[in-house]
Amino acid sequence: MHAEATKATEPAVGADLRSRRFGDLRASLPALLVLIVSLAATAVAWYVLRSQAEANGATDFDDDTRQLAQTIGVGMQGYEETLHAVAALFATSRVITRDDWRRFVDSLELGRDHPGIEVLGFAKQLHAQQQEQHERAMQAQGLPDYRIWPDRIRDDAVAVTFIEPFGAEARRSLGYDLMADPVSRGVVEAAQASAGVTLSGPWAPAARNRAPTHEASTILMVEPLYQYQGDSAPADAATRGDPVGYVYAAINCNQLMADLLHESVVDVGFAVYDGARTSGGALLYANTRARDLLRAGRKSAFESNIPLTVAGHRWTLRFLSGPYEQAVPHRPLQWIVLAAGIPLSLLLFGIAWSQATLRARATRIALDMTKSVRAQAGLLDLTHDTVFLRDHNNIIRYWNRAASDTYGYSAEETIGRTADELLKTRFPAPLEEIWRELEETGKWEGELVHTRRDGTEIVTASRWAVQRDAHGRIESILETNNDVTEHRRVERERRRLEASLLQASKLEAMGTLAGGIAHDFNNILGSILGYGELAESEAPPGSALRRYIDNIMVAGQRAKSLIARILAFSRSGLAQRRPVHVQSIVAETLDLLSASLPETVQVERNLAVDDAAVVADPTQVHQVVLNLCTNAVQAMKDGGTLRVRLEVVEAHAPLALMTGTLPPDEYVRLSVSDTGPGIDPGVRDRVFDPFFTTKGVGVGTGLGLSLVHGIATDLGGAVDMQSELGRGTTFDVYLPCRDCAAPIEEERQALPQGNGETVMLVDDEETLVRLGEEIIAKLGYEPVGYTSPVEALEAFRADPQRFDVVLSDETMPGMTGSQLAERIRAINGDVPIVLMSGYAAAPLAARALAVGAVDVLNKPLLAHDIARALEGALHRRAQR
Rg of the chain's alpha carbons, rounded to an integer? Predict the structure, then answer.
């Protein structure tokens, strides 16, 4: 029985055990479920945090790369603007010299504003027939080794003509034909096709003596220049034609990127490729991080290729973030969450998830706001104008980079200081008026004078704009300044040049008028002096008639001298020029003048130029000395000292004098000083005007200084003046020093006589013809006079062998003397011809020589003038 009972209880025990085990298992299910759920939640949290970190890293990477791309695009526009500025120079200046080019490039301050530009140049478009002429022109400008190279003939060449900075490498580049290598030729052709700024790929012409590398690639930026019509180039291709040349900039990519990104923090690998390819051959620039990543061949967590069009040329900007463990933030937090315990995993997950979400949202909001502020501040830093923000107490709160460059103070040194105290501002109006205008209109514009850190003053065009608070009160002032110091200096120089040009035009007009009057007056004076001379020779010496005639001749000679002064002023006189001994003429003039000086005037002379000479007519030099000394003596009414100094000076730079600018050369300087009262500053600009005088009526003609000015200018010189009220005046006459000459000795000879030769006399003034016949007859010749050049020509044509010499006026109705001479020479080429004119200017001498005339005489003529001219003409005929 016991055994049976035992057997009966065994199934119950097994079932109970199974039930207990099942219960334990069911009791553990919630824990297992909690464990599973917690582990699952932990795994999900780990995955979410990892994904969120990747998303944040990708977003930051994308924002940074696009901001960098935008910065590069904006910065390259500044480089394009530099080429536009150079094009504007050629648009406003028809003639550009090497000095103009150097000063303009210096004014751009490339080293500060655009350090990426290695050189800035201009290449001229030349057809085959223009190339030799261009080389000669450049060699004549001080470049004797200039030539177009490489030496192979092309139909068209684009030769480098200007280049700065002008170092040894730049000098080698002069004359280099940009069409000689495929890269520069391609960008030149592309610029011509697009009529705009164009960019090249990596460039290394033979002129640079080095090949491009990944560490220092160079590119070309080119803009074509077209023939300007008025103030602008033709807008359409139909009228534009071929370019006259190209402005180009050689840009170093390393320096370019350092300039564009110097304020940007680049934590990524960054490379620039030419075109759409990102292979090594197209690489223009790569920063250190990019080069390390490319050499190591490590895969980056994030990569981005951004196309960028610069000056009509495509670039590809490649950005590399680096390996995953460096690019994705917050990675340790993922493992902490994964390794956390079951009871804390859900709590930590919830906290971490909420914190991550809130943090990401707050970070994004803060990042967006920060990037917006940085972008706005970055734009202000890109401008060349100085910008700073002041509060209502005039305390500086913001200071941009251009302000630091202009004034020499960093932002840290200026923020918190008073603007007017820092810059020592000088206002164009009382500060109260400026504030009143700000209150009423909210803005103000004007010019201020600021003092920079180094103590120099600059003129700025200033613009103020106010920001008001909710109550309408001024809260802050945004001040924008533009340095216009150089502009104002150029403007002052332009006004000075315009005044000089106006003065020169006025003198030229007056000279033309004076020459015209002298021409007509000489014909009248010729009759008076000629008949006076004849009457003088017939009147008995010592008689009253002789005395009357002598007085007439003296007055006539004074009138002749006055006309000579007028012609000298107008530069219409014709004189025989030769190297003259200046010291002898000055000494002789002073000796003659000393005899008539009052006892109260002392003469001090310092003549130490030995045998120095100037090419001139001796009478001209005599007139200059006499007029200057006469004026000086008349200025010293109460006596004083007349100082005359003669010296040789050498000018190594252009001389800017009162009547003109002289080139570097060696000059003889005549200085005449007095100790008189000086010249009033209000009339100094008029002292060289003809007929202007400060003397009383009847004392002077007002032609003395105008004569000096006319002679000096005609001889290639100029006049300068220094005067101080109460201390006297000094006039300096500069004449080019040429060769040397012996002292002048006067030779007086009797009038040469003729031997019955027949002289044809032609003049439209009948009185002068009758007078000339009498003078010629007294000299031993047979005169035949004509008042019509047509009749004279017919008479000569009828009997060419009758006349031995022809004496003809130049200005006649129907036919000029030059035309008559040309036709007579066509009939008989052996007959000598002498022309005469009351307006014997240099062009007449050239025409006379061209038609075969042997001499040109100035009216009015006296007997000795005609005698020597006829003797010289017949002597030349006898020597043939």
Answer: 47
